[in-house]
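Supplementary notes for students who missed Thursday's class. We covered one full example, reproduced here. Read the sequence, then the structure, then the short commentary at the end.
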Amino acid sequence: MSINLRVQTLLEEKHVPFRTLPHAYATTAQRVAQVTRVPGRDVAKVVVVRAARGQYLMAVLPASCRLDLDALRGLAQSDRLRLAGEDEVQQLFPDCELGAMPPLGRLYDMPLYVDACFHPDEPVFFEAGTHRELVEMSWGDFVRLAGPVVGEFCTHEREAKGP
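Structure (token representation):
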């Protein structure tokens, strides 16, 4: 399976330079980083969250980080957020393999929140519908295309696990 047709069409219509990187099947962002030898800080993972009023949003953070739901609540100005379940995610992204959602909220009518710890001088890598291929593009192109709200809502793995 190649990248999602909606993603490919958007990238081509907006003339965004990108390349794809085929890789061995991997279902977690950390594993994708390992099999592709891309630093986990540059691999974007998408976490789908549901707000109290039923609206969904995408939180995007590096593979090497964990979501701080309390920090995201403040940024999203929502007092109640919860992680979306697998059934919800499958319904929201029927054209993607489960867990391989692209970090492009505009394609799915969802607000997009991206953690500020991505480095603007490094490329960003993300799955785009499949667990066998990554998309690579410049950080600047990603921000211009995706139009995210950028803030701080991740905890680095070392911080989460202790010294």
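Commentary. Confidence is low (pLDDT under 50) at residues 158-163. The longest helix spans residues 5-13. If anything here is unclear, bring it to office hours.
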